[in-house]
Amino acid sequence: MPLGMRVVDGLPENVWSYDEVNYNPSPRDVDKQAPRNGKLEIMVVLSEDGWPYTQFNNETRSVNSNTASGKEGLLNEEWSKAVYIRREVVRVWYIVEKAVRAWYIERKLVEPRTCIVIGTPGIGKSFACGSFLLHQLLHYEGGLLDVVAYFVSKYCYVIHNARPGVPGSVVLYSDQRAAVLKINEMAYCKRGFVIVDISQELKEPPRGLPTNFWPTVVLTSPDVNHYEQWVKDRNDKLIYVNCDDERDLKAFVAWQKLFPLGQDAGITDELCKEISDEWKRVKQRIEQVGPLPRFVFSRGSFGPRFVELDNAIDGITLNNKAQYMGILRMDSEWKPDHVSHKLVKLVRVRVGLNGETYRCVPLSSDIHERVHRRMLQILKGTWVLLRLAPSDCRSAVGLELLSFDAFLYYDVTEAVVDKLVYLQRDGETCKKSALAKFNEKQLRLQSSKCLGTAVNSFDK
């Protein structure tokens, strides 16, 4: 099988459970991959009429997707009907479904919940997550909801669910204010739901939505300006969406090639090589610009994005290094008004017992290393001057300039290690180095000759 993948028509026998998709590591484990079990890699949902994000196949008047259209883009005529569903998207649905159930079925809430779905730009929040939520809501509990309103770009689609003797229908509102008035009118007598897709044309949810009657989902980037004011007086839930796993993207590459051939098509060596070569190209792009479908699946989008990353890294100077230090430490916040946000992705982490927040980490190991090398390069001149100062002074200044990266320099590490005192634990029979469980590759050391052992380095 090409890339170890095959395409199967119909519903999967076992869709991932909430426990399988709800991976929330602690902040210290932020760079670890989520565990993967089972044979199902991705699902694909198709709609012959398209989706709100593609204006139901009307691509001549396309919304501001920032995603390439045409032969090589995700939203060409053939693929605009298909929505690629991964574990993170299903996790969002589980959380939204719980909120819908609590409001309409269990009647547990005083007011409906607003869910703010937050993720790195380019991962498919709008096309994949928004479309899948719409699909699930329209089919939920045999058609529990009467209406789903979907705000995207400058438009609003009011989608009426089918009822006995009455077919379903879609009403397009070019004036969102008129749509809000109609939604408020229906909110008193119909069960509904609102989806708001934040974009350049729609920078925050429309005012006046009946969020005290209908649950709402807002799809947005981590830019707090899009939702901070909106959630102040509402029963909100922040849902953070991770980027695509490498296996997700690998499965999508295989699906793109295999699906048009049909389930019973023969697999030739030529086809296997074609798919393998395509995956190699995509994998290389992932390392260069990160796991963002918007850029790795389109040559036309990849090139300009790579140039943007180049410019961002080349723009690091001694004066603006602070924001990039946070990237290397994996503790920076999202800065939409700073070029550094093009170098990072959002990763969900656990806070408290059931809470979640996020960390910004480099989009790929390649980008991490490029930022790291640039930081060392701009500090090179500073280190030349510091060689005239005592080693203790070099240590202090080095820590201030580059934090943990200062320990990559032999003279700094030597000066610090020389002043450490080993604290022996109760019942400990011999001294143990805290670095013993790591190897040089894990620590990314240029040299380890100064580390020594617990005995000869910490014996005071």
TrEMBL record:
<protein>
    <submittedName>
        <fullName>Retrotransposon hot spot protein, (RHS), putative</fullName>
    </submittedName>
</protein>
<dbReference type="InterPro" id="IPR046835">
    <property type="entry name" value="RHS_N"/>
</dbReference>
<dbReference type="Pfam" id="PF07999">
    <property type="entry name" value="RHSP"/>
</dbReference>
<dbReference type="InterPro" id="IPR006518">
    <property type="entry name" value="Trypano_RHS"/>
</dbReference>
<feature type="domain" description="Retrotransposon hot spot protein N-terminal">
    <location>
        <begin position="2"/>
        <end position="107"/>
    </location>
</feature>
<dbReference type="InterPro" id="IPR046836">
    <property type="entry name" value="RHS_C"/>
</dbReference>
<dbReference type="Pfam" id="PF20445">
    <property type="entry name" value="RHS_N"/>
</dbReference>
<dbReference type="InterPro" id="IPR052980">
    <property type="entry name" value="Crinkler_effector"/>
</dbReference>
<feature type="domain" description="Retrotransposon hot spot protein,C-terminal">
    <location>
        <begin position="116"/>
        <end position="423"/>
    </location>
</feature>
